[in-house]
Amino acid sequence: MAPNSTYRVQFTPSFTFADAGGILDYLVRLGVDGLYASPMLDARRGSTHGYDVMDPTRARPELGGEAARDALQEQLDELGFSLVVDIVPNHMVVPNPWWDDVLEKGQASEYARYFDIDWSSGKVLLPVLPEGAEDEPGEHFVKVDWRRGNQELNYRRFFDITELAAVRVEDPEVFDMTHHEVLRWRPDGLRIDHPDGLADPTGYFRRLRERFPGWIVVEKILGPDETLPQSWPVDGTTGYDALREICGVFIAPTDKFAGDFHEVEHAARQQVADSILAAEVHRIARLVQGVPFEDACTAVAEVMVNFPVYRSYLPEGLEHWDIAVGRSKSPAVRALDEQVRADPHGELATRIQQTSGMVVAKGTEDTAFYRYTNFVALNEVGGSPDTFGVPVEEFHRRAAARQASWPLSMTALSTHDTKRSEDVRARLAVLAEIPDEYLAFEAAMTEKHGISEPSLNRLALQSLVGAWPITEERLGQYLDKASREAKIKTSWVDRNAEFDAEVAAWPAKVLDDPDVAAFVERIKAPGWSNSLGQKLVQLTSPGVPDIYQGTELWDFSLVDPDNRRPVDYDLRRDLLARIESGWLPEVDDSGAVKMLVVQRALRAKRKGFRGYKPLRAEGPAAEHVLAFQRSHIITVATRLPVTLARKGWQDTVLPLPKGPEWMDVLTGRPASESLASLLDRYPVALLVRGES
Fold first, then answer.
1. Which domains can be identified in the chain, with CATH numbers?
2. What mean pLDDT is predicted for residues 42-68?
């Protein structure tokens, strides 16, 4: 059975199983009933995320090991708390004991088939030596110059990370060896990482469902009009589709930040296919029959670059395959298409599908999102950077569809993978309401402190105002990562020392500029309004809402590792105690009002929500409210607050369903149909019949 809500924690050597147990009483008081844990299996020493699993047969010793995990489970059971565990079926970190055995014994190793190695190419290539070093042959491997990896690697990996070797979880023995321990724990839910990397996602989920009866959500990035394959016996996604809709409804439509995102995206994907994922392209091209190797490489890359979604799951998703093939111009594509259609479960079809997701993710999320920086609030996993705003009626339609088809799908606003936190995006959404004012600020700042690469300059300025106040160290680390991911004037592989120095010097120059603080002050309050609105909507709309660690208060984090900073739970306990005693906080820098919204919404959700009914305001400011009813509650949220402030609510009303009196549980007051009265204290309201 799915929890009503979850709270995501990131286990690290400084936040262990015992530390998680220590915050459970706080989470109960907050109203959560599910602990959503980052990977708990043994990972690379010092890992702060846990996705680099080293040994899937034991709980991670750095987190306390089996004894501490078992103690945490006992605490969860006593409180009636669900445990949702994040697992990684696609890859393991190398070296590890299984990998070492393969390197020692080659194909004679009992673990040789565990990893997706192309043995036809000879020894396992290990790109671990310094640039220019001579090869160092071993019993069944050869160590080579690290730069050769992207072109010649002969084992499948996670994206372009050679230290994360893919495992063949489609093999029943490999599945059992990598899943036995987690399934032995009997968690209530599983979050499946990166299903698009699997050879046979449908087969994997069917095998998993046979062994696990609980809640299953998958980290599947859906396009705006894409749905999960019907053949997957799962309960939904991890919520990026909901994130796009919820955040989008608080963004004003505008053409002031327009550009050609698809041109940037296509170029970025092509660069990724031709460079950092060239080894994967070459391996697939060798499977294409009757076509010269270079032509096959071109055809394979074209099809993957042109995918309209992350991947297809043939024979499901044939329409997406058809679009990718139709967009490709290479003559060899016809042969590729014919061979894939002739055997949709064969090695060629399998490898090109599981690799297309790598090209799309690395090309779009990890490259184009750092190049196309006109309005970065939209540059989010599963987002559409060239689509400004989600109309209210579209939001209602999609929310109702989720309730009808995927009522147990997770919803999220911040995750460990989001490019920026929900509160950063909410503040940046304000810029769409004041585009001319912001662009004038950007121009003035560029004249004074501009970075020489224009797209990074735009990204830096929006990140500065979105995450303000921010330290020089945090901003510097973010820009260093962003500039490398963009791969324009510097990259992870080819560094540009002069440009890197320019970027590193930028934070110190701008952080003391009073114009920055003044501009942030201009957008801070409407940003808070957006934050509260989107949080209340997420917590009460269809699906199982997740709260990322610490985001029950304002959180202005940027991309990882910035979003894995320690959370101050002592502060949160103190604020929650005041709220429990009846304190109604102001909307201010403390963020306590967000905790109020979270706590009251989760408390209401415990009674269960059913259905979804849009409610529509009437009057001159009707477009500035999003409202809906779900059984015993009504959610009301302000949208586009800057534009609203210019005209006010006037006599705009929200007709309420007749019957017992509605009470706003945020303020404890009887509800008024007049929005000027209902929203005079907070920009949101949560109405429940007859409760104070």
1. 6-90+170-238 (3.20.20.80), 97-166 (3.30.1590.10), 261-371 (no CATH), 435-520 (1.10.10)
2. 97
